[in-house]
Structure formats: C-alpha cells, structure tokens
TrEMBL record:
<feature type="transmembrane region" description="Helical">
    <location>
        <begin position="146"/>
        <end position="167"/>
    </location>
</feature>
<keyword id="KW-0472">Membrane</keyword>
<feature type="transmembrane region" description="Helical">
    <location>
        <begin position="187"/>
        <end position="208"/>
    </location>
</feature>
<keyword id="KW-1133">Transmembrane helix</keyword>
<feature type="transmembrane region" description="Helical">
    <location>
        <begin position="393"/>
        <end position="411"/>
    </location>
</feature>
<dbReference type="Pfam" id="PF01490">
    <property type="entry name" value="Aa_trans"/>
</dbReference>
<feature type="transmembrane region" description="Helical">
    <location>
        <begin position="417"/>
        <end position="442"/>
    </location>
</feature>
<dbReference type="GO" id="GO:0005302">
    <property type="term" value="F:L-tyrosine transmembrane transporter activity"/>
</dbReference>
<feature type="domain" description="Amino acid transporter transmembrane">
    <location>
        <begin position="4"/>
        <end position="476"/>
    </location>
</feature>
<dbReference type="InterPro" id="IPR013057">
    <property type="entry name" value="AA_transpt_TM"/>
</dbReference>
<dbReference type="GO" id="GO:0015194">
    <property type="term" value="F:L-serine transmembrane transporter activity"/>
</dbReference>
<feature type="transmembrane region" description="Helical">
    <location>
        <begin position="220"/>
        <end position="245"/>
    </location>
</feature>
<feature type="transmembrane region" description="Helical">
    <location>
        <begin position="265"/>
        <end position="286"/>
    </location>
</feature>
<keyword id="KW-0812">Transmembrane</keyword>
<dbReference type="GO" id="GO:0005313">
    <property type="term" value="F:L-glutamate transmembrane transporter activity"/>
</dbReference>
<feature type="transmembrane region" description="Helical">
    <location>
        <begin position="463"/>
        <end position="483"/>
    </location>
</feature>
<keyword id="KW-0926">Vacuole</keyword>
Length: 490
C-alpha cells in the first residue's frame, strides 16, 4: 500500500497512543510529589520520552528505505541475538495495558447502564474486533479522533469543575491546608508515582508504523509530529493533574473520576467518554502487539526451526536479515573507494543484490529526501516488519483476543501487574531500547563512508547513552518500590 498518512492524522494516532486512561492517575502522582516537583517530573518525563521517540526516528534514517523501519528490523541489524527480548518487552507492555483496558471496561459500564460486568466485557468485542482486523495504523485515525474528543471532554470536565469550585470559594481550605505547593508530600511514593507518569507517556510502540505510513516521512516532518504529540500530551497531563489535585488535595484517588459525584449527569457522561476512550484505544495497542508476536515467531523459525526459506517467504526475508552484520566501521583508502563501491554491489556468490542493497551490512551512499547520508542494508524494501501471511495474521489476532478476553473475564484486579508492566515494559521500549539502537546506529553511516561523525550526531549518541542508563535506573528503582510497597501492604 502507498503511504498516505498526513502529519495531522499521525499526530492524532500518536497522541491517542500516549494519552489514555493513565491520564486520570496523574493527579494522584501530584498528591505524592507536590505541585512543583510534580510539574518538574512531568516535564522531565516529556523531554526524555520525546528524546526516545526522536532517537528511534533517527535510527530509521540509517536504512536504505526508512519505510522498512521497525524494532525487529533494527534489532536484527544491530543486536540479532537480543531481537526476541526487545519484542518480548513490547508484548509485555501492550498485552498488559490492553488487558487492563478490558478490565476497566467491565468496571465502568455496569455502573452506567446496569447488567453484569462480564456482559459488558464481551459486548465490547462488537467494536474492538473489527478495529483490530485493520492492517494499517492510519486506518484507525477516525477512531483515534473520536477517542481524542472523549479525552477532551474529560479534561474540560476536570478543569471546569476546578474553576467553578474555586469561583464559589469552596476550595479555600483545600488549597491552604491540603495542597503541598513546594515540598514533596510523600517521599516513599515519589518514585512509584514517577513510574505512573512515565507509563502515561509511553507511545513508542506505534512510532515506526507512523513513520512508515507518513506520506512525507522526512526527518523534519517526523520531528514535527513528535513535538506536537508530546506538547499536546503534556498540556493535557498538566491540566488534568493540577486541576484534579488542587480540587481534592490529599483526598485525590488513583482514578480521579471516582472523586466526583457519581449521580451527576456530567460525571456519568464523563464515565461514558472514558469507557469509549478505552475501547477506541485498545486497537492502537493491539497493532504493535500482533506485530511483536509475529516477529518472535519468525525469529524462532530462523533460529531453531527447520523451515525451508524457499517455501516460506517470511523466513526467506529474515534469514537474510539475520546474516547481516552491523555497519562495518572502517575507512577505505580514497584511491580504492571506486573499486570497493563496485565490488560492494555483489554478494559472496557474485550475485547483484536488488535495489542497490549490499551484502553483509555494507553501506550505500545515497542522496534522497528520506536519507541524506550513507544508509544501511536492510532485508527488504517493501516491508517494515516480518511479513504476515494471511493465515498467520488472523490466527495471531484470534489467539491474542481470546487469551486477553479470557483473562479479563476471570480476573478483576491488575494493580500489581500494571505496576510491573509500567516499570519493565514502558521503560524498556521508551528509553533502554531506543538508547541501545541509537548508540549503535546514529553516526555510523558517516564512519562507514570515511567521514567524521557530525557534531550533532555525536550529541545524539551521547543522548542515546544517557537514555540507556536512565531507563535502567528508572526500571530497577520502580521495580524495587513497587515490590517493596506491595510486600509491606501484604
């Protein structure tokens, strides 16, 4: 399919991926952190999450065709033995969050319309299954826009309630005695609530599909989409976080909607919007989940299976990918460069490689709108992840939906599981993995053609290194706090 996504629709999809039900937990983090520290931590999460997205987009530009970009493609070129681990992090993140959405759907709708919890969970399949069967992220743009309208209503509801209560003078005591303006209110909950904020900003699972489907996927346009998405998400988080905390102070609950009068018509509409937003957000998580599961299957077939590459096109594409080595960091003698470039166009069996793709991870110097410098060989020019055969696409979809719905119907609380997902999956795909890929890839195309790494790329490599240590630090501290608090409560 031809790329057809606009910057506006891509921004809508990315914002909807980032901003979900976690928005209503942001005020609770302000309760522990206080206003000043809460705002600073939100801005820190915004900058670091945006940096992770930017580093991933820079990595995509080291490919001959940037529309081939995916976590799997880049991992197979840089850390092929770790590729399944990277995809497992994606699976944990998307499966865990999608599962929590189904549980929340079952908790919300019975209070609005009556009926059994399980009935509403099953009823959600009428909308979720058709949306999960679409094959392009851009086809979800209209459902994303509807979800954004629902989110806008909830944000306006929280902000307007704060303004009206403030105007009536009913928040004087709360603002004076309950709100911590400059100090941290709860040091023990500081790291725990920071993981909530980081979890809320997770959106990298849909970055590569967005890049691949953008009609204009130049670095400038991608940066515009990322900046707009992070800015809009941050504005929503701060509006909801501050308005909710300043309204209820120390009484702020983990799900802000529960602080309001359940009999209010406006709150009932808000709960309906929240439930609708969950249903419309689920397919945005399901898309990368299905791709990650398919990637793991292909990796297993390549590594341990006996599949015949000539019979299975998926294995054929990525058997060649698994043989590619990272970029060779050598500088050729200028007097031999022409001969070397001519020789590089053939593989070990003297076969001309298609579309100028070089064997063994060599570099081709190109000048086009999508890649201004040297580019790395990639396994295929027309796929951005391990290709699906039709039967496998529907089989993976069916198995994932059945397993998620079965768990959602049988288990009612995922508080600890969701905390662990946020501490491991979110930090891995938002910081650690982008840092590993960026440190290996950014600037390597310049070295491969005998040029010095530009100062800007050297800066981005240092940023990538920072993301690795930042992600690991947040992961281990969040895991420790989550498990420590849970053991104390037990």
């Amino acid at each position: 399919m031809e790329p057809s996504s606009s910057a506006l629709s891509s921004t809508a999809n990315l914002v909807k991926t980032i901003v979900g039900a976690g928005t209503l937990a942001i005020p609770y983090s302000f309760k522990s952190d206080g206003v000043l520290v809460g705002v600073l931590l939100t801005l820190l999460a915004a900058v670091t999450s945006g940096l992770g997205l930017f580093v991933l987009s820079k990595c995509s530009k080291t490919l001959i065709n940037p529309r081939n970009s995916s976590f799997f493609t880049l991992c197979m070129l840089t850390y092929p033995t770790l590729a399944p681990i990277f995809d497992l992090a994606m699976i944990v993140q998307c499966f865990g969050v999608g599962l929590s959405y189904l549980v929340l759907i079952g908790d919300l709708f019975p209070g609005l319309f009556g009926g059994e919890r399980n009935y509403w969970v099953i009823a959600s399949t009428a909308i979720i299954i058709p949306l999960c069967l679409v094959k392009k992220l851009d086809q979800l743009k209209y459902s994303s826009i509807l979800g954004l309208f629902a989110l806008a209503y909830i944000s306006i509801l929280v902000f307007s309630h704060f303004v009206f209560e403030l105007a009536k003078g009913e928040l004087t005591e709360v603002l004076k005695n309950d709100v911590s303006w400059w100090k941290i209110h709860d040091f023990k909950g500081l790291l725990s609530t920071f993981s909530i904020i980081i979890f809320a900003y997770t959106g990298s699972m849909n970055l590569f599909p967005m890049i691949n489907e953008l009609k204009d996927n130049s670095m400038g346009n991608i940066t515009l989409v990322i900046n707009n998405s992070i800015s809009l998400s941050t504005a929503l988080f701060l509006i909801v976080g501050l308005s909710g905390y300043l309204t209820f102070g120390n009484s702020t609950l983990g799900n802000l909607i529960l602080n309001y009068d359940p009999n209010s018509v406006w709150i009932i509409i808000g709960k309906f919007c929240l439930g609708s937003m969950l249903i419309l957000s689920f397919p945005l998580l399901f898309q990368p989940l299905r791709v990650a599961v398919n990637n793991v299957i292909i990796w297993i077939e390549i590594t341990f299976g006996n599949a015949d590459p000539e019979e299975d096109p998926q294995v054929s594409e990525y058997t060649r990918a698994s043989d590619l080595r990272p970029i060779s960091m050598t500088v050729e003698d200028p007097t031999q460069s022409n001969n070397a470039l001519e020789a590089a166009s053939y593989d070990a069996q003297d076969r001309l490689l298609p579309n100028g793709t070089f064997g063994n991870g060599s570099i081709e110097s190109q000048d086009n709108s999508n890649n201004e410098r040297g580019t790395m060989a990639v396994p295929t020019d027309n796929e951005h992840h391990a290709p699906f055969v039709r039967s496998r696409f529907y089989l993976i979809t069916a198995l994932l939906l059945i397993s998620m719905y079965t768990l959602a119907l049988s288990v009612e609380s995922f508080a600890l599981v969701l905390s662990l997902v946020g501490a491991t999956g979110s930090t891995s795909i938002s910081f650690t993995i982008p840092g590993l890929l960026g440190y290996k890839l950014i600037g390597s195309d310049s070295l491969a053609v005998g040029k010095m790494i530009p100062p800007r790329d050297r800066f981005y490599k240092r940023c990538s290194l920072f993301l690795i240590f930042y992600g690991l630090s947040v992961m281990f501290l969040s895991l420790y706090i989550t498990l420590f608090n849970n053991s104390d409560e037990a």
